[in-house]
Every structure is written in C-alpha cells, then in structure tokens.
Structures
1.
Amino acid sequence: MIELGIIGLGKWAGVLARAAASSDKLRITRGFSRSAGTRASFASDFGIDCPDRVEDLLADPALQGIILTVPNELHLEYALRCAEAGKHVYIEKPITQRLDEALSLRTACEAAGVRVFVGHCAKLLAGVQAIRQHIDAGELGDLCLLEGHFFNPRALSLTREDWRWYQDKAPGGPLSQIAIHQLDVQRFLGGPVASVGATSARRSPARPEVEDQWLLSLVFESGALGSIGSSWTAAGVFDIRVVGTRATMHYRIDQTLWPTAGRLHESATLTLQRQGQAFHQAERLPVAAGDMFQDELERFAEAIGGRPQPDFDADYGIEILGMVEAARHSDRHQGARVDLREFVRQGLAKGAPIDRNIGSHT
Amino acid sequence: MIELGIIGLGKWAGVLARAAASSDKLRITRGFSRSAGTRASFASDFGIDCPDRVEDLLADPALQGIILTVPNELHLEYALRCAEAGKHVYIEKPITQRLDEALSLRTACEAAGVRVFVGHCAKLLAGVQAIRQHIDAGELGDLCLLEGHFFNPRALSLTREDWRWYQDKAPGGPLSQIAIHQLDVQRFLGGPVASVGATSARRSPARPEVEDQWLLSLVFESGALGSIGSSWTAAGVFDIRVVGTRATMHYRIDQTLWPTAGRLHESATLTLQRQGQAFHQAERLPVAAGDMFQDELERFAEAIGGRPQPDFDADYGIEILGMVEAARHSDRHQGARVDLREFVRQGLAKGAPIDRNIGSHT
C-alpha cells in the first residue's frame, strides 16, 4: 500500500480522495492547503490528517509521493518542492504553464531521482480503451479522421474571483482546461502529432479574459487528421469519433458526470458503425465499468513502485502542453499549422537555468 | 404546373425525377443525355421524352426551365446554353468550377433575363429548418459553435473512370461534393462567414487525385465559430450540432438514405440539450416528414414564377463556392484563415469577359 500526500484541497482534491478511498493499492494520509478552513473541512470530510505547515507534509517519511491539485500556475513551484523533499509527484494537467517551466521541472525531478506523473486521465476512459483495442485488432482499418469534443458551461459563470478567468493563469480557457483531455485521447488513439492549427473565439456574456471557444486541427505523423472542438458556454458534451477505412467508432459519455467517473459507464454509449451501415444500425458495444481517477492514481502508485508509465510521464506532459501552446501560437497567426516538434524544441529552450528556479525555494 | 427539361441523365437525374413525379407544382417532360443508351433507359424508367439533340430540348417552347445534372465541369457550358435559349436554369451545386466562371454565368443569365437556381438543398432538411426555427425563437441563446459532418465511403471505390477521381473535375474531392452541403447548412444557420481555414489529407487506399479528408474552420461575421469535417473513406454520417449559450441542438440523419430524402425522417434524430442536461436526458424533438429534393424543385418553380429565392440564387452559389475555393487556398497555405469577402472579390475578377464565353456556343 503506497502512502500519498495531497497539496491543494479544493474541489478536485475531493474527487481524487474519493477515487483513492476505494483503492487497495494506495491511500492518501496527509493533506495541505494554505487555508486553515479548507484544511479543517478536508480533514473532516475524508478523515485525512492536514498539518498546518506544508513542510510537515513534505518531511513525512511515510509519504512516497505527493498529489498536486493546486492551480496551474503553482504546478512548477510545488513540484520543485516535492523534488527537493525527495517525493515522487503527481501533477494535474497541464504539467506546467509553459514549456520552459516543464523542462525545469523534468530536469529537477530527474536530478532528485523522483518520478513525475501527469494526470492525463481521459485516455483511461473505458470507451477510449475499447476504441484503442479495436484499432489494434484492425477492425477500423487505417485511421483517417479523429474527432473529439469537450464542452461545458464554465465560462457562463466565471467571475474575476476565479483563476480560470485570467489568461496568465488558465491560458486559452477551455483549451488548457478541458480540450487538453481530447489532446490526450487523440494522442493515445492516433499516435504522434506532426502539426497543430487552431481558431478561437470569445462568446461568453461573462466576458472573461480567456477565449471560450476553440477549434483545433491536428495532422498526425501517420497522415490522418484530428479535429477537436471545445466550448465553455455549452451544455456538457464529451465524445470521440474515430473514422477508419473499415469502420467508425463513436463514444459518448454524460459529461456532467465527469467528476464521478465511476458512474460514467451507466449512460455512456459506444458504437461500431461498419461501412454500409447507418448510424442507427451500428453495433452497440458494452461499456465497461471503471473509474479513470482511481486508475490513474494506481498507475502513479505503480510508477512509484518503479514501473514506467510513458503515457503519463514528464515527456508526455510536455508533448501535450506543446500542443496547447502550439494551438495558441497558431491562433495568433491566422490559424496556420504549427510544426509541433520544432515548436516544442524552441519552447523548451526558452527556459531559465534550472538552478535559478530551484534556488528560489531554498 | 411548370414544365421543365433535364440535361444529364445519370444517377442524380433519377433522384430528381422521382422527387418531381409527386409534385403538383412542376413536371419534367423532356430529358437529354449525350448517350443514346442513357436517353433510352431514362425515357423508359420515367416516361419522359428524350430527344436525340439537345437543341430540340432547348428550343421546346413548353419548357420554362432546365435542370442541369451534368458533371461539375459542364455546369458553365450548359447553363450558358440555357441562357441563350431563354430558359431558367437549375444547377446542381457547386454553381461552377471556379469563381470567374460563376461570374460569367451570373452575368449571362442576367443579360438573358433568366433566373439561376443552385441546388443547395441541405438547408431544406427538416431538422435544419427546425434548428433555424429554434434559433429564431431564441431558445438556443447566442450562437457560439456550429459543427457539421458529412462522411461517405466514395473514395474507397473511385477509379480513373469516374470524373470524381480528378482534381480538375471534382476539386478537393469531398470538399466540393459533400462538405459543400454543410457549408450551405452552416451559412443558413450561422449567417455570413468572415473567414475560412482548412486542412486536408489523403488516406484512401484507392489513391485518387483528390484529397479524401477535409477539416474546415469557419469564423462567422457574428463572431461564432464553425467546424466541418468531411471524409470520403467513412461509413455514412451527416449531422449538425449547434451550440448556443442556452442550449445545444443536434440533428442526425441516416446518410445512406440521402438519395431517398423522403425517408430521412423515419430514422432521423433531433435533440435539444439545455444547459445542465446530459445528452441522454435531452429533449427529443419530432422530425417532420419531407423531401428536400422535391422542396428545392418547387422553389425553382417558384423562382421561375417570379418569386425570389435568395438562398438558392447565383449570388448564394458564388458565396458557397467562395468558401470551397477559400478552403483549398487555405490548405495550400498551411491552413491559415482566408478572408472570404476579399477572396471572392479577387476570384470573381479573374474571369474572362463574358462575351468570349457566350461566343463559344454560338
């Protein structure tokens, strides 16, 4: 049983704490928030000890890893503190705000001998795994087109009190917050991405700083195309469609249940539409029960135990963040496609020397 | 009862002849194909007189209009012949192959006092009309994102014997052949388009000259975004999703029934998903029976009768063709967004003087 700490005790910490509670591979035993009230209520809700000082959590020899559910802009700072303390670190997506920060983080964690695990959970959805199995079995033929959507109404209720309002805290709004899950899914199903194009818009009457609509076009190294739509002003949608020369698969979940992933299979639909079939005649496949959040935490525990998790490591997090940043770059340049490999290389190179970042915490 | 002739007696002529047969506003009384065998079988199948010479059809004083179902590259030539003969002309989409040709056609028809009607039928689908009514009633709120797909497996079976194999005959493959219907639908639902971006790919093992996958990104003048995916290697899909700040509507038909439009309502689905609702809890709306092909032919008859049809006239056809051409231009330029108004203006200006085109047929 792997013991973990958790830093950042907002809504998402509760989601992960519930997912962890029913695992027999790990448990969360200590938590920290800068707010005393939040510490008290988290300790009460989950029976988890929440010390007053983060140093006490980081110094606890029983903890083998730390889960970070702090706002994006704090990912680097807290991950570096975990590395200094010799703790393996789980970071919610995106790995950091900028590519140069991600390089700093990766370098520091390598030097400290701790593993980085980035919470790119969406690929663990039961339907996504099922599509992957059908692709691998050749049932779809050659892949031609992948299409995914992630919509929710977040921008309609945003206020200046929410960090997601601000471009420097949640770059691109739904792009870095929810569309990023579709980037994970498409990378998992379609393989490496060669280029990214993007177009954004602002439609929310709340008028946050961030864009609230994104359309992304991916060209995979295989030659297939990917399309991602993301809206922060919409009724909830999460779906993925994969078009192959032999068949098309389509998976849809009830997006409003996203935080209670263990219930998603109850209303999810997964279909296999072969050439010549109409959609309503497509084969309806069963969707396995599952909980992507528990699965990802258990994979973090496996990583701590020494089993590599290449779909969740720092390099993977950097690749996905590279797509997010490339999309923003494309949008600023009339939507022209951005060569991903070259863009990531340049983005990583912009960083300050790692010693300087580490130094700020000593 | 309006009497019409039809030129080009391939598969699509049969679709329109069946749609016309049950109309009480028009009838098709004469047909022409360059192939004697095709003329004979069409005459036999539909009881329609098919003279040996196109001149006989064009000179028939009983005919008030001509339906052109010839390959795209012949649209201009035959439309000009109709204009010379003083016949109103129905042209299958796209209006012509190039914008300069469309300008020639429009000018010639205006000079001859005949109306041009372009067969942009998809907006007449019952579900598209229903979405438009819900938009107009304010039930969706402000529009944010429109998404449409049109897939079929055409490229899997293309051969060099088919004009659709060739880039100069079916430019962009599915782009000018089926995605164009989604451009019509999105223009109808979302209003004028400000810019177009596009990315294409070739995935068909048959390897036709044309691209077989397209992703389009539209920015509407309203500020909303539009996304269109089109594949020529896929099981049949035609759907449209419209995201507004109050609700999302989704309409799906059985694409394999496209040529038998009168049956589409039997298996079509139309849903209204309000904010807070999951998709499977969305309101399921009835889909009215209808036949978009009969509807468009009757609108052509109304145009002949003097009632303007601005959603089907030459200017409309030029606007939609402009989007097709802008998408190809964007794809050749790394997918960067193309300003539609400026692009169309330049495309129209490239044309040869109209007299020269007219002259080639006298």
2.
Amino acid sequence: FQLNPFWIELAYFITLSSLGFLSLKATNPRTVSSLLPKDIDLFFTSVSAATVSSMSTVEMEVFSNIQLVFLTFLMLFGGVVFTSMLGLHLTRAKMNRKGNIEPDSSDSSHDSNHHIDQPGMITNPETEEKSIEKEENQGFKLKSIKILSYLVLGYLVLVHALGSTLISIYLSLIPSAGKVLKRKGLNMQTFSIFTTVSTFSNCGFVPTNENMVIFKKNSGLLLILIPLILMGNTLYPVFLRLSIFFMEFMTKRAEFRYMLKNSRELGYGHLLPGVHSVYLMITVLGFIVVQLIVFCLLEWNSEATSGISGYEKVVGSLFQVVNSRHTGESVFDLSAISQAILVLFVVMMYLPPYTSFLPIQEAENVCEGVKSKRKNKDFWEHILFSQLTYLTIFIILICITERQQMKKDPLNFNVLNIVLEVISAYGNVGFTIGYSCERQIIPDGQCKDKLYGFAGKWSGEGKFVLIVVMFFGRLKNYNMRGGRAWRLL
Amino acid sequence: FQLNPFWIELAYFITLSSLGFLSLKATNPRTVSSLLPKDIDLFFTSVSAATVSSMSTVEMEVFSNIQLVFLTFLMLFGGVVFTSMLGLHLTRAKMNRKGNIEPDSSDSSHDSNHHIDQPGMITNPETEEKSIEKEENQGFKLKSIKILSYLVLGYLVLVHALGSTLISIYLSLIPSAGKVLKRKGLNMQTFSIFTTVSTFSNCGFVPTNENMVIFKKNSGLLLILIPLILMGNTLYPVFLRLSIFFMEFMTKRAEFRYMLKNSRELGYGHLLPGVHSVYLMITVLGFIVVQLIVFCLLEWNSEATSGISGYEKVVGSLFQVVNSRHTGESVFDLSAISQAILVLFVVMMYLPPYTSFLPIQEAENVCEGVKSKRKNKDFWEHILFSQLTYLTIFIILICITERQQMKKDPLNFNVLNIVLEVISAYGNVGFTIGYSCERQIIPDGQCKDKLYGFAGKWSGEGKFVLIVVMFFGRLKNYNMRGGRAWRLL
Ligand SMILES: [K+]
Ligand SMILES: [K+]
C-alpha cells in the first residue's frame, strides 16, 4: 500500500494546524474576555503559522506568552527546512525497510516531503551493468542520506542558537529596542526565540502588533535578520552546499564528496548541483538588487520612509525587499508605498523560492525530465490547471464573497489589495495592505483601525478561501507541472 | 541575405500605422477646429486600428466619413486572416524563387507572417529515401499553397460580402437601429462595411461613440455579429478546415485532400490538424459557456444589464463574453460590471486566440517540437522574458507614469483599471473601464465625461507605452517561447 506523498504532507499540515488551534483555544489570550478572538481567526492564525504564511486576522499582542510559545513550535515544525529534514528521515526509513532490493526510481522521486521537481533524476536502468553498479551504490547512498540528515539538523540547531543569541544581545545592548519590549510587556527570551524561528522558517510573525515597523530605526536588528531570512529559504541550497564543502574540507569523508558530486541522486530537493546553486544565488541577489533600486528610486522621499536617516532608509529598504520573496516582515507601511512597487512585490511573492535563470543546455534537460517523468503519471495530473489559473479562480471567489464591501468601500476593498492578499497567502509571504478607516468613502462611525491584515476584515467565507490558499501555497510543489496539457497558442 | 520575419512584420505594422496617421491627419474630422484631436491621439487611433486593438483615446464620432473609410482599410490590412494570406503569398514567392532546390526546413518554419508555433513541423531528413520523396512532393505542395491562398481570399471576400449585406438589410428593416444612424449622421453603407470589417478582423471599433451599447436592444444585429467574430479569429482554423472539406467534397481535387492530411506541412499556422481543430472548438465554446454562466449569475439583476428584456439580456451577455477573447465590442458598460467578472475578462483577454486543451500525447509532441526547434535558435531567444514578465514591466511603467493621478484620483486610476487596459491592449481586445467624473474623490469642476477609453485620460508617456504594448501584442507570437530558460522551482 503506497500513500501519495501529497496526501501525507496535507495530513501533516492539517494535523499541525488543528493541534495549534486546540492549544491556542485551550489557553488564555492577554485580552479581556469580551475581545476574545473568534474560532475562525484562531484557526486562521494556526494555519498561517503552520504554513509559515504570517497572514493575520488577529493582532499579535493578543497572544499570551504561552501562546507565543505554541506559535513558535508551529512555525518551527511548518518550516521548509524542518519538513525537508523529516522527509530525509522518511526516505532513509523506507530504504532501510526495502533492504536495497528495489531501486525503484519512479518511487524514490516521490518519497518524502521534498517535492521540488528534480529533472534528470530518473535514470532508466538501460544497461545491465549500470543496474548492478547501482545496487552496490545503494548502501553508500543510504549512509550519505543519514549523514545529510544529521548535517541538516546541525544546520538548524546552529543557526537558531546563533540567531536568538545575537537578537538577545542586541536587545540587551540597545536601549531603544529593549524599551519597546518592556513597554509591550513582552518576554525578551520569548521574543528572541520567536523572532529567530519565525525569520528562519520565513514565517514572518513578530510578537509586536506593528511587525517590524516599530524597529525601523534599529538597523542592527534588521541586519541580523536579513541573513537568517536568506539562510532559511531562498539561499538555503547555497548555504547547505557550503556546509557540505566545509565538512568535506574538515573531515575528508567520502560521503560528503559523494553528496557534492551526486547532488540529485540523493533525492533531497534542496541539495542542488553546483552550477545550479551558483545560478540560484545570482538570481536571488539579482532580484534583490533590482527591487532595491526600484524601491529607493520611488520611495526615497515618500511618506512611507519619512522620519528616518539615509542609512536607516537603505537598511530598511533592503530588509523590505529581501522580505518580499517569502518572509513577509515589514518595516514600512505597505499601504503608503507606491502601487508600482506593490505590483512588483506581487510578482516577487508569486515566484517560487528556487526560481532561477538557467542557460540553454540545462533548460533542455528540464524538457527531457518532463518527458521521462510523464510516463509514470496518471491522466489527472495532466489536466490539472496551472498555478495561475487556480489563483485567478481564488481571486474571483474572493471578489464574489466580498462583493458587498467592494461596492461600499472601494478604496479598501479593491482588486489590487485582494490580489496582493491572495498572492501573499499563496506565496506564504504575509504582506498585506491592511485596512484603514481613513480610506472609507462613506465613513462608518464605529470603524477602529486595527493592526492586523486586510483579511481580518473579510467575511468568514473569504477567510476560509484564504485558509485554502495558504495550504495550496504550502503544497504548491505538487502542482508545479499542472496545466501542461493546455497549450497557449 | 535573410531578413528576420519579426522585423518584416514589425515594419509592415509601423508603415501601416504611419500611413494611417498621415491620412487621418490630412483629412478633416467632423468636430470644430478647436476640438481637433492631438497628433498622439491620431497616431494612437491609427495603431489601434492597424493592430486590430480598438483601444481609443478619441471619441469615434469625431471622425468624418472619409476617415472612417481609412480606418476600414487599416483594420482590413491589419487583420490576422489578411496578414496570414499575405504570408502565404510570400511563402509561395520564396518557394518559386528557390526552384525546389533547397527543402530547408529550418527556414520554411520562419517564412511569412504566420508565426504560430508548429511543433512537429520540422522533420529531420534522417533517411535518404524520405529526402527524395520530399523533393517530389515539393511541386505538389507549392500548388496546394497556391490553391490555399485563393481559398483564403475567397473566404475573406465571401464573409465580408455576406456580413455587410446582412447588416445593411437589418438596418433597413429595423427602424430603431436605422434611426440611431440617422440621428448621428452616419452613412449606412459606411457603417455596414466598417462594422463588418471591424468585427471580422476582430478589431472592435464601431462608428458610434457608445460602441455597441446603443444597440443593446437590437439582438438581431448582435446575432449577425457573433458568427463574424468567431469566423475571423478564435474559430478561424475550424471554419477554414470546414471550407477545405467542402471544397474537397465539391471538386474532389487531390490538393484539398493533401491540405487536410498534411495540415502542418503546408506551413500555414492557421490550418490545424483535424484533432487539434476539434479540441480548439471545444475549448473556445467551453470558455464561452463558462463565461456566460458566470456573467448571467452575477449580472442578471445588476445595474449594468437593467432596462432590457430577458431575451435581450441573454443575447447581450453572449455577445459580451464572445467579445472578451479578442474583439472587444461592448453592449454593457464595463465600469458597472462586478469586479469578479472583470478579473475573468482579464484572463480571457490574456489568453492567445488558439489556446486549447490537448490530451497528453499531443502535449508530449509539443515538448519534442520545442527541443528540435531549439537547436536552430540563438542565445538571445532563450533569455527573453516571458509574456507575463513583459506585461508586468509595462504595468509597472504605467503605474509610474500615472503616479500623480493614482494618488489624487484613486477610484479611476486604480491598478485593476490599468491592468485591464494594458492586458486589453496586449490581447488586442479593446475593452476599457473608461473614465468617469463621478468616480473622482476630489471633484474637478472642469471634468466632462467622454466616451473614449481610460487611456484617453493618461499622460503622453502612458499613451506611448500603450502604443508599444499594442505592437507587442500584435506580434506576440514571436515571443511565445520566451522565458523558457527561467526555471520556476
Ligand atoms: K511568510
Ligand atoms: K480588438
């Protein structure tokens, strides 16, 4: 009996979110009982943490210290690096069980959680020789996978320890940052660990209502977080490869050399071949530079970045554009930023983390990879819609569920804001325009500005659609090749 | 010396647009001299007609009878069917010149104007036998192409004659429609021919300011136009194939049989193989049905469709959704339509005309086609961005050129309206939200509602970007495979 890995992973995230919901429900928030968050909002928050999205429909300071701890665990267990490590352990367990008998390639590509497509991974055992060789290699491969899984664990522990220590030191040394926590009654230890886990897993929740806006003058803190963001997501394959290099250099073990040379055969989607890692790094840095230039050109003298020094503006802008790919922490109010940049952010949020520019030969391999994979797949996988089609359907659904508000309150409920919210949930980013009473055209006397996301003002159905989008986004790798049977001509 | 067909086609459209501009400039409009359209608007209109976009920055009733005739020629010469016929003649001339000596496949795929990708067309002459057979076939192929080009000419003439006759008869018989023309001082003959050419070429200009809104109760007229729209664009391959069937049945000539069997080898991109034609038809009708259902569900009792009977609503809705793919004539005011449908329309406008759903085997051929083609192309073609990336860049540019207005007048200048305008220009559709003085938040005393597109209120730079987008959209087939070297992972 073979469970489809998609269902395993979906079950994992639903279980995680449900456990999160129950523990948030069972414990008391900081607010008075009359302002208790609704069940749907608690579930939304739990899903948002587990899928590392950081979309919010509740202000963060509502949560008590113990609830923040629960959220920390959700973010830790939901993060990409952590789940990929679980995947490695599963692969190992499965290979052990099979006892090297079946080197079933079509299956190994499907094992575990790391479902980034690996073209060229499936080598048909055309010649007998190769197949014998392969079986001999199997034991060595198993050992390499074991070592790799420990390496990933070490990477995780080390980065988290380093990150939270640095943040703690910064908070103790810089009074302006420390005072913020004191004023808000936040535990410094909780804050450091929460923020480290949130940043490394690229979730983007921060225990303060204002997210990072309140720290926009604390450039040092931002500079600690930027490498954490990159190490935990877009540049993870690069840092992983560097770690293996380092370990190989230190220990001279053959397994590390094997990992470096046969990156794809290990079946760990985050370990990319050397050339590919270089292209990935260039692409990631390229996107950051382009965004930074556009951001500085359009926002240098704008309202959004006013009140801080030139140096703080540069660091803040850098922090903001590094966050647009996946993390979604903010130092500037997005609703004050020019729409041209919002459109750019929508594109950046849409791009999957390992988007990279590859020269022609590689691109051809991709095509071959598609073909060889295709044979093993069933009909339904081919008539799946593409990502963009699903996203459009979700956006249209939200436009329908929120149609009353779109008529009454067109400046808050406009299509750009909805698109940004949906793509933000799909990309598991967490950027939001928010909701502002000032933008209401027919002012509603009872309106109070709240520091949660735009989705917080949506109807229950709208929030439910967004929960689905967050799950869909977290599991998007399974649909990456969807819509291939549609031909745009 | 071999000119790249992209440059030939670009030169064709720029020449056509420039000639159009000069003739519009040289003749007098109907308005008094103080309201003469600016040069950029005349050029915009000319480009819009030549690229069959029907984007407008001038009210249509400004143009005098002779100017409408000029526009008719622009639309006729710019239409897809007409340019593809020119392409067939060019192919024939080139094959004649070469005298069947070089059956150069890499070249023949590049000939002429019909640059829709034809995977599987390039058959490598692997075996000697095949290559000899091919040369024998060459003469027959040449003859078939000749006959095909006459067939296309006949199709063009017949459909135009039939269309304008039917419209003339309708206008003479139905007083309500005839009166509109009289009131507006439009020549009935000009109106019939202009509308037929505009509809068949899928341009979508109508000599009235209100486009087809003024005829929303004339369901008969709409029912005449709907088949014209389909025959001239999305279903042209189906009707072309049916015509060949019919001719084969009538004349029993071998050339027609050859065309039916070797559709792709003729190198005429609009002649698709039988199975593909069937899938195309299913896809086109499927899109229409889905749109019609959504439109009727959301708009049955809305403001936009008020004041007409149920039957007129159904026909009007059908007309509106058939127009969303390419033609862009409107019977309902788009600014009154719910935003969910606008998002759906944006998707429909974006889809290239021959988008179709293909079963798996065909999809694999596509992949093979890509690979065999790839070898002949140069580096630059691979690092071209994808269509969506270019469109995003254009949208961001417009957000920058119109940033002042976006702040002052956010209900008119919002991102959805800009996206709709840009995608409309890219798809050569012509839908627009327009501009409404009522939607101004800070009312501007001098504002007067005009019946031209939203782009009419843009700055000169914005209009210029949109002109570029229209050319880009008309020539989009050359970039269809752009961005392949980018890997979204
Ligand atoms: K995030
Ligand atoms: K059009």
